[in-house]
Amino acid sequence: MHPNAFCDMQKAVERIVKAVNEQENILIYGDFDADGVTSTSVLVKTISYLGGKVDYYIPDRDSEGHGLNSKALVKLLSQKKPKLIITVDNGTSSVEEVKFINSFGRDVIITDHHEAPEILPDAYAIINPKAINALDEKLTPLQIEYLTSLAGVGVAFKLAQGVLEKFDKLSYSYDLLPFVTVGTIADLVPLIGENRYFVTKGLELIRQGKHYGLKRLLDHAGINIDNGLTAEQVAFTIAPRINASGRIESVDPAVKLLISDNKQEIELSIMQLENLNKIRQQMVSDTFEEADEIWTSSKCHDNAIVLANPNWHIGIIGIVASKFVEKYYKPSFIMTYSEETKTYRCSARGVRELNLYDIIANLSDKLEGFGGHQLAGGFTFSAEKASFDEIKKALNQTVNEMLNGQKLSPSLDVDLELSINDVDVSLVEELSKLEPFGMSNPSPTFVVNNLTLKEKKLMGSTKEHLKLIVEGPNGNIDCVWWSRGDVPLLAGDKLDIAFAPQINVFNGVTSVQLVVKDVHADGLEQQEEAQQRIFDHRKKINILSQVNDYIQKTDKSVAVFVENKTISESLKPYKNIYDSIITRINAQKSDILMFFDYPADDDVMQSVMHTVGADAIHYMNYSKLKNEEESILKTFSGMIRYTCNNLNGNFNLTRAASALGMTNVVIETLLEMFEDTGMIKINERGEDVFNITFENAVELSKVLHTIKYAEFIELMNTVNEYKNKFMTMDL
């Protein structure tokens, strides 16, 4: 559709043309997600191409948040001295901020696609298809639907087209389509109308190498696009890396990747984005694990998940909210809190049965600011005006009222049931004619029943993905289940698999791979319910205070396994942890089991696990200890004297083994070693108790010359190897 479908388009275009011709300073005020970054890039590249004086500013997610920020504007007006400010992917709700800019005699053009409030800013022009009176009244309902489906970058592109047309340089639009493609896919808007064309053409241009930075980013990610580029590949490679910069640090590497013509600068930006993406992945994993433990421990059955923690990074709480929706299928509101500003900031993700924007808008009188879409949104509120518990209660009440007794349950729409014989390369080639797939045009979902599982493997650095190998008529078929982690499936199980097929090329061999969307197997649900939850904290340090607070607040019983005296002493400052310590001797039934120390062998491990019977197991960081032979020998010598003087010589092997963090075999060897020195005499050997008599005091150095000492050292090494392996083994 022509840009003039927007009522304020001509007005906005003429103002930009004036600014370009008169060399006025123009500032593009963007946003820090992929849609905002690509929107910024579209207008920066366009105005630069036309010879205008243009700069950009993207706010800091942590300190400034979404939208126009008054403190930032003060600096920008004084330092950059813009005569014209153009917002992209934001601004529709910035009434006070626009009034502030107007007071300096500067003009503001707003381009946005977010839901618009009733009261709009007094901007020079507003280009937002969702704002009141923003579109030509002669448009058909279908045309309006297409325009309101545009991402922020799509709206910015419309403005760019209008300006380029005025300069008779409309052909430059094709140079902008790679940006539009990435932003449209990343923002999960419907791939209908012009969005579909933008993405189709943009994918082709990226594959052809028309944008050096994006092509190189795909190369670094290991994506071979010689045979084509899909929207899914953009969504899972380009978009997360661009988003990672705005989530963790500055967006500069992402913007430079998109707008720079300097290849060295682009390569450096790619390296920075790769590193930030890895950091982002680990942060998300750690935060979700922590938040999920809080949710499950609360035993809460609310229809909305509402959690807050001041330590959670603002940049990744939206992804964490998405993971909650994926796991529990409930609207999820994940918040962080700043003690300095006394402000809560929330990122939320929704389910398709409820409009998330409407849920948040219902609380608008309690909020400092909010925005969003059907399935994603966010808000801020002051702790001095509303408490977290008050907001939590209001969110749950709103969700309950909107559900009106309806139960939320995830569902999967299946297009067709197939025979496994139908799943081949030609099927995928036929389906490719329907691409690009995305929102409102999802890839078809098929089902094949009664497949036999041959093998199951965990994939990825964090083992969060699952590979299933099933039997097919012409050999094995690989299936990939993204972000599913482990599931209790065994070789030989019969599976019904819902999937989307895709081509997989490996070592020059082309085959079909099934991207799993769901699996049904007899007894799978019951097995999943019974399965223990595993929490991996082995790479975490400096978390003892958090664990101590958690044990104090949780209503679940916690057992902390520690037998090593050095580790036990190090935990004394953390009273709740220290008071929860158990050994193999006094282990008892508990809801949660934490390993700060690890058992001496598999028999002890299985015994402790069985006795405690925990629903959740936490594997903690463990410092690999050096052999403490001298300390053990001194302690053991004292045990012998105590037993002979106070226990009638009845030496309990298991109690001694627990006290030293050893095995019973080690203790038996030590007794025999001290007998060889002439210190004791073993009178009677029972299964767990030896009766001994003290004979003579001996120098410990004499022990070093016994045959049994070498055996003791070997056994010690075996114990330490067993303990240490827990720091690297696949849990």
Structure description:
It is a single chain. The chain is built from 25 helices and 24 strands. The protein is an alpha/beta fold. It has 5 domains: 3-275, inorganic pyrophosphatase (n-terminal core); 300-403, Diaminopimelate Epimerase, Chain A, domain 1, CATH 3.10.310.30; 416-529, OB fold (Dihydrolipoamide Acetyltransferase, E2P), CATH 2.40.50.460; 532-623, 3-Layer(aba) Sandwich (Rossmann fold); 629-726, Winged helix-like DNA-binding domain superfamily/Winged helix DNA-binding domain (Arc Repressor Mutant, subunit A, Orthogonal Bundle). The protein has a 5-stranded parallel β-sheet with strand order 2-1-3-4-5, sandwiched between helices. Helix 10 packs across helix 11 and helix 11 (252-259) crosses helix 12. The two termini are 55 Å apart.
CATH topology of the largest domain: inorganic pyrophosphatase (n-terminal core)
Instruction: Return the domain count.
Output: 5
Query: DSSP helix count?
Result: 25
Mean pLDDT: 90
State the distance separating the first and last CA atoms: 55 Å
Query: What is the class of the largest domain in the CATH system?
Result: Alpha Beta
Please mark out the parts with pLDDT under 50 across 5 or more consecutive residues, or reply none: 526-530
Beta-strand proportion: 15-25%
Number of strands: 24
Largest sheet: 5 strands, parallel
- SS content category: alpha/beta
Shape: elongated
* Spatial extent as radius of gyration: 32 Å
Strand order in space, largest sheet: 2-1-3-4-5
Topology, please?
Layout: H1 9-21, E1 25-29, H2 34-49, E2 53-57, H3 70-79, E3 84-88, H4 95-102, E4 107-111, E5 125-127, H5 141-148, H6 152-166, H7 173-186, H8 194-207, H9 212-220, H10 231-248, H11 252-259, H12 263-298, E6 305-308, H13 317-328, E7 332-338, E8 343-349, H14 356-361, E9 369-372, E10 376-382, H15 388-403, E11 416-417, H16 425-431, E12 446-459, E13 465-472, E14 475-481, E15 494-506, E16 509-520, H17 524-530, E17 533-537, H18 544-553, E18 558-561, H19 565-570, H20 575-578, E19 581-582, E20 592-595, H21 602-612, E21 616-620, H22 629-646, E22 650-652, H23 653-660, H24 664-676, E23 680-685, E24 689-694, H25 707-724
Parallel strand pairs: 1-2, 1-3, 3-4, 4-5, 6-7, 11-12, 14-16, 17-21, 18-19, 18-20, 20-21
Antiparallel strand pairs: 7-8, 8-10, 9-10, 12-13, 12-15, 13-14, 15-16, 22-24, 23-24
